[in-house]
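Hi L., both proteins are below.
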Amino acid sequence: MLDAIKKSLCSGVEIEEKGIDRYVIHTDFTYPDGDELRIILKKQDGEWLFTDEGHTLMWLSYENFNLKTDTRSDLFFRTLSSNHAVLEDGRICIRFETGRIRGAIHSMIQALIQTADLLYMDRENVRSTFIEDLQAVFRGRVDMRDVETNKVIKNQKGEEYLIDVYVKGSEGMDPLLVFAVSNKDKCKDAAMAMITLAAEDKMQFTSLAVIDSMAEIPPSDRDKLINRADKTYIGLSEMNAGLERFLKKNNYAEV
């Protein structure tokens, strides 16, 4: 079987024995940062399998990659499925029959490389993960009963405004309207919603704008939004650092 692995890969492959029925497979393939793919061949419950022993997801976590959004999670599990891989306790694994080892090792390599490449996926092609990441943060910080995402509010003229996160205030409190600003159009829409709902509809609310630090927004549009919003964060990391204090100060979360 070990000879079959060598024949199925390039001549540079090496197999390092690490114990009874346990081997490290060294290949010429690496993660984006240059580290070698972590591939272990071992026998478990009478079956041979390849596993990364959790190294790939650990590597992504070091890069601050959040896998808990719907979009990224869906892409990840589709990546595994397309390569006949599964996730077991955080480890990417492929079980195989010895006669199919050639396909299994190639599928394992592809599964690890494609999973690591999720870090560089194009946001516009998979919707705005920035917005999903922001919404996930609020679900974790505020009682779910008080949080509504993608809420549509109509003004007196019947025009609709999309609120990325709506936090219902307790009795006698104004709601919190959160705008995830990921591009120029979202910036203009957020500013217009704040102006129209407050000035024309006399709606009482606290506004929070979170601007994607990677977004290309004209300075004039950006300044208008910052001047209009009650609170602004630049990037999710800045929001994460100050959000707890902001929510408690404004009574949207328990002290």
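That was the first. Here is the second:
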Amino acid sequence: MSEFIFMLTRDDVTVGDALDRYAEVRGSGLRWVGFKDVGLPFDQLRALADAIHADGRKVALEVVSLDQGSEVRSASAALEIGVDLLMGGVHPEAVLPLVASTNVLYFPFPGRVVDHPSVLEGSVDEIAASAEQLTSLRGVHGLDLLAYRFAGDVPRLMEAVVAASIGPVVIAGSVDSDTRIHAVRRSGAWAFTVGSAVFDHAFQAQPTTAAQVDHILEVATASSRAPSEA
């Protein structure tokens, strides 16, 4: 199985009613819930993180700001609100000193990440080399791979990055079908995120946040043989 991290986000921005949306899935089997560093003030993100932790779940924050100053500010704020997993970002040299003395897991982006919503550029070999280099750094625990934001052979990319990475890999962005979840599982990735697709009711389940999340959890933990992606 692969771990499902439910992101309270749409189009790479934390949704304005994130607390209400989280309340809809409090009774689910989720173990991880996350959000982005943009979309809500950090005092509201702190309240959101507190609510998630109060239910015994882990909190992930994904940094999508690409300039170094914004990334450092977001990472510092993430530590202040007590996240368990800091994902994303492209400036590990600036973030690693911040997380060095903490228990926060740090999973930066491999490859060249541009624009917002984020896009992954480079060849499979280049991104895999980036994965190997990043996870060789002390304090980098794993990677945040924007596999379905890559205009190429996505299954090959996922498998190459999982093979090259010393630590676990999260597949983030545009995981919007059962078929893609099955592909993530076959790649050996530790986890995947879904945000927009839940709120857009992309999965074959009732058009509610809770039903969409429950469906994804079922697919992520299913023991049956998964079909190949077309």
